[in-house]
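Practice problem: predict the structure.
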Amino acid sequence: MDRSFIDLLARAVAGDHDAIEEILKMYMPLFNRHSRINGYLDEDCRQYILLRVAVSISKFII
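Answer:
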């Protein structure tokens, strides 16, 4: 794993909102891909995924 990502994740776990936002942006293509229903982007699904990931980051142990 890239050391810069580990540092970014450590900042996010510590509550750095900019770091959390950066991680969410990095994975946005993945979130978008898994938020499709019948081929269309479901915004509610994407928002649910984003919220769950953002909240879960604080539970990581580094």
